[in-house]
Amino acid sequence: MKLFKKFPDTISIILGIGILFIILTWLIPAGAFNKELVNGREVIVANSYKHIPAQPQGIWAFLTFPIKGFVSASFVIAFVFLVGGAFSILTKTGAINAGLFKVITISKNRPQYKIFIIPSIVALFSLAGATFGMSEEILVFILITIPLSQAMGYDAIIGAAIPIVGTGVGFAGAFTNPFTIGIAQGIAQIPIFSGIEYRLVVWFILTLIACILITRYARKIDKDPTKSFMYDLEINTLEKFNKNDIPEFNKSRKLILVALFLALIILIYGVNVYQWYINEIAGLFIGLGIISALIYKMPVSKAIQAFIEGAKEMMSAALIIGLAKGLLVIAEDGKIIDTILNSVAVMAGDTPQFISVSLMFLFQSCLNFFIPSGSGQAALTMPIMAPLSDLLGISRQLAVLAFQFGDGLSNMIVPTSGVTMGTLSIAKIPYNVWFKWICPTVIILSFIAVLLLILPLFLFEW
Length: 462
Fold this sequence. Notes:
It is globular, with a radius of gyration of 23 Å. It is mostly helical and about 450 residues long. It is built from 20 helices and four strands. It is about 70% helix and about 5% strand. The two termini are about 45 Å apart. Strand 2 and strand 3 form a beta hairpin. It has one domain (about 1-50, about 55-70, about 95-245, about 315-460).
């Protein structure tokens, strides 16, 4: 555990990669592909790679790449700040918390439906991750899901798995998550939230598998409590949750949840029928924030303060997006991006597409250990993965889906994920115990993810 605590933070890693990229501009030959516009987006012309004069970068490139990255990613960064601020207003009303607490309370008071309680709540967390990107908020709900799990005769692992695995598969199968799929598709130059039909199928399958795996473990404990991974460790060390802290599920909060539901429907309709992009989507979420404040009768000053606080919480993500984009600026100025793409394309030239897309997923999963931020990883990898998918004859939608899978599934297990490690800390679950339990789950879900990546290659064009 001490090793993990000393692991460099994401920004330090990106700065280190920046130095590496500068060194690579001196070592990798410069080259370029011809590019052309196809359906409004720039794509590489196959077999057009050629060597060009070297343009190695130096110390000045390292000092200026952050500001260049921010300028290049300004549209995405502004989107993150505005949507984060709007969602903060929604969160401050307590509507989402009240709704989830209500479901959990109803479940707890219906012991005859015990077998349906866990999968129902897992599916709820998955839906939250897939639609509006619930992540850090699960640190609050762990104080409810663990006592619920223990009251049903289960262990802390079940209580932690409900929100961690639930939101994990939600992120992996996201269909309207603005912080992952929205950013990734925007960078890949494909319509935001397009391909939602197949992503809904993906989300349903991953969520169903997660529910089955967690419920199967719960039933093992039902039959034999010694099967619990926490059997020799389980102690009631969790801080007692004050029931007075549970927000009341009143009329105004119900209306706010209805507004959220309607906003998601409008979002899906807008991006599919009117090809909405970042401007329109940001406007929709800002409108949702304003409507939520009006329904809740939140004073203007408090609404503005909530918006500012939400935008502040996005500062780390914005920094990572800007710096990650800056790395690509170094590589582009050094003219080595196309050389790297050409080398990978040559190596994968005789490789079947199903192997290539599987390797994309593996790469994203491994990278997530170093950059667990979904938005940051999208900003770093999609400018490379999108044109690479063109060279390999793979749909950009699949490149985005490979990113989603790599980000969502690996975050359940990597010790660099602040949300996962924070949740385990609150739940008093040793990381080695969690790793032993979650590893088979991640392997099974990853196997299913590979199959879902391969399926469109053989059955339909996506």
